[in-house]
């Protein structure tokens, strides 16, 4: 019998070329931290045939080439799933004294309201606030990036004040311009590409959230800290170039 | 070697075996919907499996040979005709400069892959030449092919490709007397798709699981490179828990709130929040990539281990074909 509680760590098969590790079952900064430190260790000591790893709210999924895993002599196990699982489990035992991953702080300039934030007034009205108060609340907090998903570079961020939590729009817009900053429930996010979407749009950033020409195409990654800074339309124009 | 696109058909894109290194930034894998056919088309030319190919959708496309070219094609979307002569599939074909090639109806599937000796020369973006239209990356300027596009082959071709080319080069259309038969690698019943139970398999009602594994499901019109929407018996939720978004991958079958199913395909999102009833065996994904709206399929369950063994077996078979071509010409 175990005498002390082991941190939650379960592995299941996602496909022939991927496994998922579950670190818990709720959204929390503690789980995010565990995923980030495990991922860091994995990226430093990746297994043969490793492709990439995908952090999400409570999981880290590891993608690999089954042919290379099957051919590997350094991994032990009866099949690819066992080989990868055993490797990941041994890696977990090495990271027990959980190293802390320093999270960068990234400032996102946002021009709020007007043509850039079509729903700012509506959000203010729903909460009986002024538009300026919504901006003040949105820029006051430090947000945590939990995962990148939906479309390339789209960051799911948590940590928004309940005061401005707003349901999605009843009818999604056919297209939302790239850089749009939105609110959906307690989440806030930025649309990296022009896509359809149902979030309440309160502003727009001139930064390119996704650029395939950059070494790290997505401006944000899981674990990052984010703050928003209100800018005027002139600064927006200036930063756009 | 060079061709010019005269008509791209309903949709034609450059694809390869996909983009695996940027999933954490939500860049989808993309690549060929029928990876097996794309690889067969490459292998019979002496190319690397991952060389860029053109993925044509259905018939109706047309292109011209701007130079002498050595092509091959595979996949069941269309039959290629060159100046009214049917070109046989899954083998190298020499086509002289000035010929025009048309994709004609006559096959049951939806996608056809055209490979060229050396692969089509488009820039590598984030580790792949495959087109992902939503983010405008890969292929030709991140978009589908248009009339007037000129496609060239990579300058470097393998010794095998060069020897195959030399063996076929004459003044007229000429093809190899041998072929690689992808059908020998596929199950007889192309409508029976093997699946492994998904992580949330037990979240659904027993009767629904029986329906899932015994009744037909039909592809709806909404199906595309991102996913196939399946119409049929609704899947009832037993566990009404919310799933926190987590990684999904091509082959994942999600169940929506209304009980409908979506089979994720090449361009699918990297994460999703719908419970996952099953994962299609990777070896059967090429069959799914050939389905078209209105086609009906059945699902049958296999174990995770079987799926993995089938995967390794398929790779070994492809190795054998690759070696066969090599030994013929080296």
Task: Give the fraction of residues assigned to helices of chain B.
Answer: 10-25%
Distance between the termini of chain A: 63 Å
The helix tally of chain A amounts to 6
Q: Under the CATH scheme, which class of the largest domain in chain A? A: Mainly Beta
- The overall pLDDT average of chain B reads 96
Estimate what percentage of residues of chain B fall within beta strands: 25-35%
Instruction: Describe the global form of chain A.
Output: elongated
Number of domains as seen in the coordinates of chain A: 2
Q: How is the quaternary structure best described? A: heterodimer
The third-level CATH topology of the largest domain in chain A is Cyclophilin
Q: How many structural domains of chain B?
A: 2
The low-confidence parts of chain A are none
Which runs of chain B of at least 5 residues are low in confidence (pLDDT < 50)? none
Count of extended strands of chain A? 13
The overall pLDDT of chain A, averaged over residues, is 93
* Largest interchain contact: A-B, 46 and 39 residues
Structural class by helix and strand composition of chain A: alpha+beta
Rg value of chain A: 21 Å
Rg of chain B computed from alpha carbons, rounded to a whole number of angstroms? 20 Å
